[in-house]
Write a structure and sequence with these properties.
The chain is of the alpha+beta class. The chain is built from nine helices and ten strands. It folds into three domains: 96 residues, no CATH class; 48 residues, Roll (SH3 type barrels), CATH 2.30.30.60; 88 residues, Alpha-Beta Plaits (2-Layer Sandwich), CATH 3.30.70.100.
Length: 298
């Protein structure tokens, strides 16, 4: 047994080659392999813990965090292995720091979007299927990525939105806590209209449209339509009609139905939808001169 141990000790201590003035032996290689294997095992174990803790509620965030932990542990393990082998990493770290500074400036926006993506995936304030108003453009989120998110417009156009924009700007999320949304349309009637009759007609139209889009998930408060006067325009009295809907993505079709129903109801009740008009008034002196010229010509 002692002879075997002596042979093993000689074999492990056998020099293989030199790197930067450091002798690399068999034992050094074995130590490197063991440290790298241990680092890989630890990273895998930590990834499993993250998946168990976050996988069911936040699968995307769990995958992202698991990848970050995996690579971080491997880098630490590799550095520890080289340090244990006696290889001086000072020069490598100095060169790496200079390279990292330059790379940081070049990849500033990418890193910013990456960090914003991790925050969005963790907070879950925006998720796949949400309807957003992004800088005046209504999109439905189809994919929430780690660097950018993809959404589709009403016209089927795919829009790529950097995650940093979503995290640093005011973004309307129509489906964050509930998908209830009020569709509003405006209509102007002539000043000669019977306003009480106009209100009755608009309320009836709003109730009929609401009954068509009503679902059991609506609350009583969201079933009540809104009919109000919003102002006196140059040529019309302005009204606003609002009805609650369940899916903001159907806004355009609901507004179209509401406009058509208002048009039909106004036609049936002889209510005039006002249009811009201009009255021309002549100065009295101009009128007298015009009348004199007309009489002279006669």
């Amino acid at each position: 047994m002692s002879e075997f141990l002596d042979m093993l000790g000689k074999f492990m201590g056998k020099d293989l080659f030199h790197v930067a003035g450091t002798t690399i032996s068999v034992s050094t290689i074995v130590t490197l392999i063991l440290i790298l294997f241990a680092s890989y095992w630890i990273s895998s174990w930590l990834r499993q813990l993250v998946q168990k803790a976050l996988g069911k509620r936040h699968p995307a965030a769990a995958d992202t965090l698991g990848v970050l932990i995996h690579h971080s542990v491997l880098v630490v393990g590799f550095s520890s292995a080289l340090s244990t082998a006696g290889i001086d990493l000072t020069g490598l770290f100095a060169a790496g720091a200079i390279f990292a500074v330059g790379l940081g400036f070049a990849m500033q926006s990418i890193v910013q979007n990456f960090v914003a993506g991790v925050i969005l995936l963790t907070e879950r304030t925006i998720k796949s299927g949400d309807v957003l108003d992004v800088d005046g453009l209504v999109v439905k989120v189809s994919e929430l990525g780690i660097r950018a998110s993809i959404g589709k417009t009403w016209d089927g156009e795919e829009v790529i939105v950097p995650n940093s924009f979503l995290s640093q700007n005011v973004v309307k999320n129509y489906t964050l806590s509930t998908s209830d949304y009020r569709a509003r349309v405006e209509v102007g009637v002539s000043y000669s209209s019977d306003l009480e009759r106009v209100k009755e007609v608009l309320e009836q139209v709003a109730k009929e449209v609401t009954s068509r889009i009503h679902t059991s998930t609506h609350t009583p408060a969201t079933e009540v339509p809104m009919v109000i006067v919003t102002g006196f325009g140059d040529s019309s009295i302005l009204w606003e009609v609002g009805v609650w809907m369940k899916d903001p993505w159907e806004l355009r079709s609901i507004k179209s139905d509401l406009y058509l129903s208002i048009w039909r109801a106004f036609q049936a009740n002889e209510i005039v939808i006002a249009f811009p008009q201009m009255d021309l008034h002549f100065d009295p002196a101009v009128m007298r001169s015009f009348e004199q010229d007309s009489s002279n010509l006669a």
